[in-house]
Amino acid sequence: DAKTTQPPSMDCAEGRAANLPCNHSTISGNEYVYWYRQIHSQGPQYIIHGLKNNETNEMASLIITEDRKSSTLILPHATLRDTAVYYCIVILSIQGAQKLVFGQGTRLTINP
Amino acid sequence: NAGVTQTPKFRILKIGQSMTLQCTQDMNHNYMYWYRQDPGMGLKLIYYSVGAGITDKGEVPNGYNVSRSTTEDFPLRLELAAPSQTSVYFCASSSLAGEYNEQFFGPGTRLTVL
After folding, report:
1. Which of A98, B9, B64, B65 is buried most, with the most CB atoms less than 10 Å from its CB?
2. Taking CB atoms and an 8 Å cutoff, what residues of chain A touch B35?
């Protein structure tokens, strides 16, 4: 699975959009980009995933560049409850057991 | 549904002791996983299972054993506890039939070995 690079920390004002970048320059054509977050000391929580196209769900949007070497997770209206560590993970298969490889992620702090 | 439950929440062990971390899921998921998370680091996969009776090693299996006798349960066994096993342990599950194949995580077990 391709390696990912994320900034260690970011800040965002409450109510603004939080844009979290992720580089995955060695991603192969059939690898997916998944995003999870971990609030305080809880277990990680799935947010969104994508292959080529941009994706949106009730939690966030995922923008993947055309060359697929980077992506951005967007939280459109950040709240204090979005303060968490966000992990960008590249995984080969959308089926079967996924052996997730977590980096150190981005610690996002939402400020009032 | 309770989702993924883990017991105990906290435990302190002495070096050389053994214990079993319990994990149960009530979502009828095929796949189950054990991860550990050291302070300030991301999670690392210890073992995983694709179904009852089938387990396989992850990235950091040394010092641990697992079994999967039922779909619901996936206990993690530490035989001879060492300080290096001080960590937070997360169990997760996912479904073969899941649309996104996302993993659902339990609340974790915080283990200290002294």
Report:
1. A98
2. 100, 102
